[in-house]
Amino acid sequence: MNDMQRAAVLTELADQLRKQGSWCGETHLQKATYFLQTLLEVPLGLEFVFYKHGPYSFDLTGELTALRAYGLLELRAQPAPYGPSLLTTERSLGFRQRYPVTLRKHGCAVAFVAQALGNKKVSELERLATALYVTREGVAGSSVQKRAERLHELKPHVSVDLALQAVREADQLAHQLPKADEE
User: Fold this and answer.
1) Contacts 24+ apart (CB under 8 A), 44-53
2) Do 108 and 140 contact (CB within 8 A), yes or no?
3) In angstroms, rounded to a whole number, what is the distance separating the alpha carbons of residues 64 and 58?
């Protein structure tokens, strides 16, 4: 996927997240993009590392800054304690119209992620993305319990019970993925 196709997918994701109730801050886009690339295998070509609030892409932060510079996204302040929202602009609608094949190819994946994550709070997204990270890490004895214990080890502020819920939810999402022929 080239830079412009990636920009079309990311701005579409931002729009879809908003439609599902997300305030669409950078954390929401980080976690949704992680799911899009990792779980749904959309080839965005972004590198994610484990960071303070779970999987994080410095590449994506740069992409979001570039999308703002190109006038495809804009920041909108939110009342405290929330950070700003990243909203698509009128210009992004015209831009996305130039990439119908890319958006058609990945549209089901974008819609799936937006529907699954759009109404989640930041703390839920952190747990859920970390659960996916731990699952992809290939924890020895990959039972739900072992993965939840690993999540708790990485994130001591997340109780084992909440970690178990997150691992189960990530597994459930993995079983609900749209089939390739649906895309």
Assistant:
1) 44/1, 44/6, 44/9, 44/10, 45/1, 45/6, 50/130, 50/133, 50/154, 53/27, 53/122, 53/126
2) no
3) 10
Measured CA distances, 71 to 11, 17, 88, 91 (Å): 11, 19, 9, 7
3-state class of 76 per DSSP? strand
- The CA-based angle 48-55-58, given to 5 degrees, is 45
Residue 49 main-chain phi, psi, to 5 deg: -125, 160
pTM, two decimal places: 0.93
Cβ burial of 105 (10 Å; 0-12, 13-18, 19+) is middle
119 — pLDDT class (breaks 50, 70, 90)? very high
Distances in Å between the Cα of 116 and the Cα atoms of 119, 133, 134 are 8, 17, 19
In 3D, which of 144, 139, 117 has the Cα closest to residue 129?
117
Kindly state the tokens that stand for 121. Answer: 């709070």
Mean of per-residue pLDDT scores for the chain: 93
* Residue-number span of the structural domain to which 157 is assigned: 3-182
Residues paired with residue 134 on neighbouring β-strands, in sequence order = none
Domains of the chain: total:
1
* Phi, psi (deg, nearest 5) at residue 174: -65, -30
Q: What is the pLDDT at residue 78?
A: 83
